[in-house]
């Protein structure tokens, strides 16, 4: 399959253009020629030297990641940036990136994957950002005890052996859950306004403790990496359906 065909199909599926003015990430094809034939595609959360090297070792033609290289453009291609890009060019490895479009996709996205894990029903977009959304909310058919929800996240996510942090300030039963993966505590007030019992995200900020306490909201910090493997894994399944060989490169950070 041609690279341009894969890029066009991913861009259409993920509505990449709709996030162009909302995301600092240069989503879409970040490194690569105008066209080439593809046989093998590697998938990873982060576009870093380790995943690039492993994609080269796997003889991949394309690496698809959630966190890419270009955030607002490059001033210089030196140092760490050069070390990541050079092996791609040397080994004819293309790089495709989907950041917020993959967070916000209501079927394939990261938040949708966490909602699947928790068995949430009656789902709706959550995490408003301009005209789009970067998360999802839903209702647990059988309400969770707070410790049970934490244990569910801790035992099923790829946390790198790290515990799920829990700001235990909400009700005794958790039914309505809001999810923004990665760094999502900026949507804490939106979760409160939506009458959610809990917000599930990846990592916190210092102000989240008191804001959650004052609002009476559970906040679960399950790891940036751990909450963001779902989207690229879903894309891997989709690309495999197109007849391409795929592999997932798991490089958990514990963060």
TrEMBL record:
List keywords of the entry alphabetically. Metal-binding
Q: Which SUPFAM superfamilies match?
A: NIF3 (NGG1p interacting factor 3)-like (SSF102705)
Which InterPro entries does UniProt cross-reference here?
Answer: DUF34/NIF3, DUF34/NIF3_sf
Superkingdom in the source lineage? Archaea
Q: PANTHER family under this entry? A: GTP CYCLOHYDROLASE 1 TYPE 2 HOMOLOG (PTHR13799:SF14), NGG1 INTERACTING FACTOR 3 (PTHR13799)
Task: Give residues annotated as binding a divalent metal cation.
Answer: 66-67, 103, 224, 228
GO terms under cellular component = cytoplasm
Q: Name one GO molecular function term.
A: metal ion binding
Query: What family is it from?
Result: Belongs to the GTP cyclohydrolase I type 2/NIF3 family.
Q: Which Pfam families match?
A: DUF34_NIF3
Under which name does UniProt file this protein? Answer: NGG1p interacting factor 3 protein, NIF3
């Amino acid at each position: 399959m041609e690279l341009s065909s894969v890029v066009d199909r991913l861009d259409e599926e993920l509505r990449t253009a709709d996030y162009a003015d909302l995301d600092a990430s240069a989503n879409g094809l970040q490194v690569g020629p105008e066209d080439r034939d593809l046989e093998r595609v590697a998938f990873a959360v982060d576009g870093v030297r380790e995943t690039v090297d492993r994609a080269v070792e796997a003889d991949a033609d394309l690496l698809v990641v959630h966190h890419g290289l270009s955030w607002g453009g490059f001033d210089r291609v030196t140092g760490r940036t050069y070390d990541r890009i050079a092996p791609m060019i040397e080994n004819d490895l293309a790089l495709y990136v989907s950041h917020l479009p993959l967070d916000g996709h209501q079927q394939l996205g990261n938040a949708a994957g966490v909602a699947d894990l928790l068995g949430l029903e009656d789902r709706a977009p959550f995490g408003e950002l301009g005209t789009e959304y970067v998360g999802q909310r839903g209702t647990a058919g059988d309400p969770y005890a707070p410790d049970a929800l934490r244990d569910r996240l801790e035992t099923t996510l790829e946390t790198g052996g790290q515990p799920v942090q829990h700001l235990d300030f909400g009700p005794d039963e958790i039914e309505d859950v809001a999810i923004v993966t990665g760094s999502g505590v900026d949507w804490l007030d939106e979760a409160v306004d939506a009458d959610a019992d809990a917000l599930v995200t990846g990592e916190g900020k210092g102000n989240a403790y008191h804001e959650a306490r004052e609002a009476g909201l559970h906040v679960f910090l399950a790891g940036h990496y751990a909450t963001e493997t779902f989207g690229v894994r879903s894309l891997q399944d989709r690309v495999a359906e197109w007849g391409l060989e795929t592999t997932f490169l798991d490089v958990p950070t514990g963060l």
